[in-house]
Specification:
With about 400 residues, the chain is α/β, with parallel strands linked by helices. The protein has helices at about 15-20, 25-35, 45-55, 65-80, 85-100, 155-165, 185-195, 205-220, 250-255, 275-285, 290-300, 330-345, 365-375; strands spanning about 110-120, 135-140, 175-180, 200-205, 240, 260-265, 310, 320, 355-360, 380, 405-410. Residues about 295-330 have low confidence and may be disordered. The structure holds S-adenosylmethionine. Pfam families: Methyltransf_16. InterPro entries: Methyltransf_16, SAM-dependent_MTases_sf.
């Protein structure tokens, strides 16, 4: 039986389960387990961990992670003279004989982890709000950060970009989105979830592209190349293309004409920057013809678009309504709804915009990007302080959101 105070659907139990599913560092998980027990790993916490974490994932790819975690749990409980549950000893004993220690430290080991985006209850008016209040996305990732030219592991900037998409869905829904350097594909899965009209992901590394496709399929999205332009429904297809920035030509990119370009953690290699900036400039310079814009106006105001309507009024001004633009019980969400609405009114017909999230590891490299952008007639604006996402990953202590900056990039 569970500890009566611990519930897998509310914190701190929810955070412990989510941290476990996301394979948070085991020390961080241990501190969440302690928090669940009011400072120590009680018998109730052990039962909770067994029932809601270990026994539910024991037959999946969590074996090495569980082995590590249980080893630390046992050590901590024994050190404080507690009694270790039989199930934990047995599971650890089984792994001791069946798992080799060197497997996870050698080569390109892949794991499948689940990222849970946890929505505050007051945000129920956001179109991205899931009924269960959590959006759980499984992802195949490598434990080797360099595998696939770094694209097979999940980087914090794409967690941040995902929080932006889920916090400000009106900016992306019914818009055609194109991501460069997509890595494991998390951003594309979130774009598809909030009903972007078209989602194209790209990467320059072929093994990353293969892993990305695997992840899209794992999340019930298909990766065929004939994605319908605007179906009025969630695009269940996401296009994945091989796009090394160095060899991408205007011809390669002209078929896409995205409304929004996205990039997470792509500014780190000075040698790639001129090519990246050239790709951004081509994508951001594309202007839709009047006919294409009119076609999209119709589809945005059609019954298929559930949350967002544009109506032309007598004075040739647009009235834009968000269905969720009603008072919610959370001021942070109210602010996001009105920001979404103001943004929709101002920007809907403007030229494409890029959102770039980045950890600035090297100031010189980042300044080089800004200079190249300026030379290419692009305006990069730091919007980190004005566009703050909801904290949807409160359990993820390894994710330091304060180290990430968000930029918009547009053509002059
Ligand atoms: C640090 S990873 C970030 C991946 C993902 N956006 C994330 O945040 O999790 C950088 C990504 O950019 C891709 N990349 C790096 N250089 C590239 C290039 N010259 N052309 C195309 N893609 C490139 C890598 O393959 C990798 O997927």
């Amino acid at each position: 039986m569970d500890d009566p105070g611990l519930d897998p659907n509310t914190p701190p139990g929810l955070h412990l389960v989510s941290g476990f599913l996301a394979m948070e560092p085991t020390d961080s998980l241990l501190s969440m387990a302690r928090e669940c027990g009011g400072g120590s790993i009680t018998d109730g916490v052990q039962r909770f961990v067994w029932e809601h974490c270990i026994s539910k994932t024991v037959k999946t790819g969590y074996a090495y992670y569980i082995k590590n975690f249980v080893k630390k749990l046992i050590f901590e409980i024994e050190s404080s003279h507690g009694t270790v549950a039989d199930e934990l000893y047995e599971q650890y004993g089984y792994y001791m004989t069946s798992l080799r220690d060197d497997v996870m430290t050698n080569g390109n080991s892949r794991v499948c982890k689940c990222i849970s985006f946890l929505f505050p209850a007051g945000c129920y008016r956001l179109p991205s709000f899931p009924q269960s209040r959590k959006l759980v996305l499984p992802l195949h990732c490598s434990l080797n950060m360099l595998e696939g030219d770094t694209g097979c592991s999940l980087w914090p900037s794409s967690l941040y970009m995902s929080e932006i998409i889920l916090s400000f869905p009106d900016r992306f829904m019914n818009r055609s989105c194109f991501e460069v350097g997509s890595g494991v594909g998390l951003v594309g899965i979130c774009l598809s979830y909030i009903k972007a009209s078209k989602v194209t992901l790209s990467d320059g590394d072929l093994s990353t592209l293969a892993n990305m496709k695997l992840n899209l399929e794992l999340n019930q999205l298909s990766t065929g190349n004939n994605v319908p332009e605007r179906s009025g429904e969630t695009p269940k297809k996401v296009k994945c293309i091989h796009l090394p920035w160095e060899s991408a030509t205007e011809g390669d990119l002209q078929e896409f004409m995205p409304d929004i370009v996205l990039g997470a953690d792509i500014i780190y290699d000075p040698q790639c920057l001129p090519h990246l900036v050239r790709v951004l400039a081509i994508l951001l310079n594309q202007t839709k013809t009047d006919a294409e814009t009119r076609k999209e106006d119709y589809q945005v105001s059609s019954p298929g678009s559930k949350h967002h309507h544009v109506e032309a009024n007598g004075s040739n001004q647009e009235n834009i309504h968000c269905d969720h633009d009603l008072a919610s019980s959370d001021p942070a969400c109210d602010q996001r709804c009105s920001t979404n609405k103001a943004y929709a009114i101002k920007e809907y017909y403007s030229r494409p915009v890029a959102y770039i999230s980045s950890i600035i590891r090297n100031v010189d490299t980042f300044n080089c990007f800004l200079e190249l952008a300026e030379q290419a007639n692009l305006i990069a604006t730091d919007v980190t302080e004005t566009l703050k996402p909801l904290n949807l990953l409160p359990y993820m202590h390894s994710y330091n959101r304060s180290s990430i900056r968000l930029f918009t990039v547009t053509c002059k």
